[in-house]
Every structure is written in structure tokens, then in C-alpha cells.
Amino acid sequence: DTAVSQTPKYLVTQMGNDKSIKCEQNLGHDTMYWYKQDSKKFLKIMFSYNNKELIINETVPNRFSPKSPDKAHLNLHINSLELGDSAVYFCASSQDPGEDQPQHFGDGTRLSIL
Amino acid sequence: GQNIDQPTEMTATEGAIVQINCTYQTSGFNGLFWYQQHAGEAPTFLSYNVLDGLEEKGRFSSFLSRSKGYSYLLLKELQMKDSASYLCAVPPGTASKLTFGTGTRLQVTL
Fold first, then answer.
1. Beta-ladder partners of B9
2. Partner-chain contact B48 A31, CB within 8 Å
3. Searching chain B, which residue's CA lies closest to the CA of residue A34?
4. Poorest-confidence range of A40-49, A76-85, B69-78?
5. Is the pLDDT of residue B13 over 80?
6. B70 — phi, psi (to 5°)?
7. Rg of the Cα atoms in chain B
8. A64-98 pLDDT, tens per residue?
9. Rounded CA gap, A29 and A51, in Å?
10. How far is B72 from B61, CA to CA, in rounded Å?
11. Which helix (H) or strand (E) holds A54?
């Protein structure tokens, strides 16, 4: 059983397009996250939601808009894609936003901008 | 803010022991995580330390010294499958906003 699943696994698209990445967790967790991992493998937090409410929004361009229809889902929509958006995007979840909570990651979405 | 330092790469031999160090500077300390990430895969949780000392979990152990801002991950009886990146991460004082180090890429050789 997949705990945190995100789709698609690969996404290749042209600059300027709009795309979405979906994430679902079946762990019953309250908190979900989006991370970006660049070509140097640096993993950086983008957003965090707790019970559908946004609790962390790092300095991410407003072309990126997360949406949480319920606490088991956190989708990421990206408008006007740019070359610098090429990266691996990981979704993650944790029981709650507590500092001691381990996070469970999805397999990542590899986004390539042509 | 947070600052986390780890060596970029390490190489060790199958069957050996390797220690991966992490030093950190944070405005507030709420524990330290270690994650493992195989190439092309998701990070997976290894350990969490909030008190000083060594915590052992099978072949993997993690050590923390809060006064020195220092942690290490100790891997014993290395296996080829241990070749991966090992990420040190610290959460700040408030809502969960885990800050990761750049990771140490470990290559296990025969």
C-alpha cells in the first residue's frame, strides 16, 4: 500500500505552460508538505498545510499555488512555467506539525521544462 | 536562521564502519533528523535525536551533542545497499519547517 502517492512521476512540458501535480496520503496524517529538490540535490520546503490550512509559505513565487481540498490531499499548481522550475518536487506528510514528527515522502515528480 | 554543514561525499568499503558528521547552527533547537535518500527515490526517515547521546537502531546509530551543535550518523557492517545520500535536518522553533542539509553522498565499494 502506497502511503504518500504523487502523480505524475515525470512531467515534461514547454516553458510558459501551466501544470498541476497531485498528492494523496493514506496515513491519516494532518500535515502535508511540498518540497523542491534542485539539481544539486538540495531539498527545500515550499509549503505546509495542516488540516487543509496553510501554515508555511516559504518565499515561493506566486506562480505556485497549493490547494488542499481535504487533509489527505495537497495539490500543487504551477502557472507560466520557467526553466528554473525544472526540479524534483516531493510531497510529504506527518502526523501533525510538531517538530518531532518524522515526515513520509512520496516518490517525487520530475519536472523538466523545455 | 539555520545553517547545516555536512561533507559532500564519502567512500567506504563493504563491511566497514562509517561516520557521517553534521554540524548545525539554529536559532532554536527542537531535535535533529537523519534521512536516507537513494538515487532517484524519496527520502526515508532514519532517526530523530532530541537529547544528548547515542541512539542505536540496528546497524545505524545517531549521536547528538546539543552544546557542540553536532551530530553524527554511524553505519556499521556496511552493505552495498547503503550507498545513498544521508540528509541531516533540523526543525526550527515554531511550526514544522524542516531545514535540510545538502546531504552526504556515501559510496560503498567492494
1. B105
2. no
3. B97
4. A40-49
5. yes
6. -145, 140
7. 13
8. 999 999 999 999 999 999 999 999 999 999 998 88
9. 9
10. 8
11. strand A53-57
